[in-house]
Amino acid sequence: MHNHNLPSGGISELAEAKLYRQVQAGCRACLNHLMSRHEGLVVSVVRRQTLGQLSFATALHAGRIGLWRAILGYDLQRGYAFSTYAYPAIARHIWQAVKRAERADVSPRRFPSDPTTDETDPGVIWEAHQVRAALYELVGRLPKRLRTVIIARYGLAGKSPATYREIGVVLGLTGERVRQLHTEALVWLRHPGHSQYLRSLLGCYTLAEYEMAEALAQRWLRWRGGHRGQ
Q1: In a 3-state reduction of DSSP, which class is residue 113?
Q2: How far apart are CA 30 and CA 138, in angstroms?
Q3: Could you tell me which of 172, 170, 211, 208 has the C-alpha nearest to residue 61?
Q4: Contact call for residues 6 and 30 (beta carbons, < 8 A)
Q5: Contacts by 187-194 with C-beta closer than 8 Å and gap 24+?
Q6: What burial letters (b/e) apply to 48-69, b meaning 16+ CB within 10 Å?
Q7: Using CA of residue 177, residue 178, residue 180, residue 184, what is the dihedral sign?
Q8: Closest among 39, 58, 38, 56 to 47, alpha carbons compared
Q9: Cβ neighbours of residue 156 under 8 Å, at least 6 residues apart?
Q10: Helix crossing, 28-37 with 56-73: angle to 10°?
Q11: What residue ranges in 89-219 does DSSP mark as E strands?
Q12: Fold designation for 122-226
């Protein structure tokens, strides 16, 4: 639990830098304060965007996600104003939402595996390739042991998916320990700090989804901390 006295008006550069660091350390109250403080920037970006089929409210929601990501990644020491840093991030999230709305407005897609069609959609093939490449890149960033568990468990190396017990034999661990490592790997993969690009491809880019992934990570860390040495 964080207890901070949040400023209500203008603040010094030093206090502002501290506030961003507190957000990045996990202070939810500080995050809410900065989100509220920069809401006008989101509105300004939305009004400058061509929204197409996207509603103004949905565009605001997408822009707030971009603002949230910008707050988490901002470093005042780099020498530029937060608005300069955040503007493209907000605009990018709105643009992605606009593109998703455009795709949803088109006639239903026919996937290559659909036996009712004799042709394939190049856009679908390209998107599937992008998702697969992003997934493999993300798995490749896992710590070595967690990567081994995920690859074996889901058969990502071209082999049949393995059981926890089978993976444990290879790693010299119990099946239960492999199950725990599998859970830890999934928590890592789902964390917004790691899965941002893949989430954008899959459209799983809402603030609620990010908060759920963060809550899962925190629960796992608490559980792991309570079971060390057992």
Answers
A1: coil
A2: 30
A3: 208
A4: yes
A5: 187/216, 187/217, 187/220, 188/142, 188/143, 188/146, 189/138, 189/139, 189/142, 189/150, 190/216, 190/217, 191/217, 192/69, 193/72, 194/138, 194/141
A6: ebebeebeeebbbbbbbbbbbb
A7: positive
A8: 56
A9: 136, 139, 150
A10: 130
A11: none
A12: Arc Repressor Mutant, subunit A (1.10.10)
CA distances from 30 to 4, 23, 68, 152 (A): 8, 5, 12, 41
Break the chain into its structural domains and give their ranges.
Answer: 13-105, 122-226
What class, spelled out in words, does domain 13-105 have in CATH? mainly alpha
User: Other C-beta atoms within 10 Å of 196: how many?
Assistant: 15
pTM of the model: 0.44
In tens digits, what is the pLDDT along the chain, a chain of 230 residues?
A: 444 444 444 556 677 778 888 888 878 788 888 888 888 999 998 888 888 877 888 888 888 888 888 888 888 777 778 888 888 888 888 888 888 777 655 433 333 444 444 344 444 555 666 677 878 888 988 999 999 999 999 888 888 899 999 999 999 999 999 999 998 898 888 776 677 667 666 666 566 666 776 677 677 667 766 555 44
User: Distance between CA atoms of 174 and 172, rounded to whole angstroms?
Assistant: 7
Tell me if 13-105 shares its fold with 122-226: no
The tens digit of pLDDT for each residue in 121-169 reads 444 555 666 677 878 888 988 999 999 999 999 888 888 899 999 999 9
Q: Report residue 151 as tokens.
A: 């690859």
